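Record type: monomer structure entry
Structure origin: computed from sequence
Chain ID: A
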Amino acid sequence: MLKNVFGIAGTALNAQTIRLNTTASNLANAGSVSGLEEEAYRAKRPVFKALVDQADLNAGFQNLGGVKVNEIVDTIDPVRQVHDPGNPEANEEGFIWLSNVNEVTEMVEMVAASRSFQNNVEVVNTAKQLMMRTLDITKA
């Protein structure tokens, strides 16, 4: 039973780590520009999937329960076009495309992911404490 708790919390910790890394990547690319709309950086978001099917066990997961990152997708927000003929990345008409990263949204994502990560650390710590107390009871 406790093995399941540790396994489920471990999958959540892994998923939130990927979420934090994705957010950090978005923030790092927030100021990037491109001369082509197709090449402009688009913010990324992880898509989580609950591990609740027998197929998940067949895919190598040890227990049912938990979460995994199913894929990382680009956000659908449009990139912005700006007229900046002095920019070395500007196209023939003098336009550049800015990334669609919103720094405020990314900071909210980062705080939410950090809190989710911390909550799962607390789950692991509480399960560990309960296991230790159970061992203490059996010694008496």
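Annotation 1: The CA atoms of residues 2 and 88 lie 58 Å apart.
Annotation 2: The chain has one domain: 2-128.
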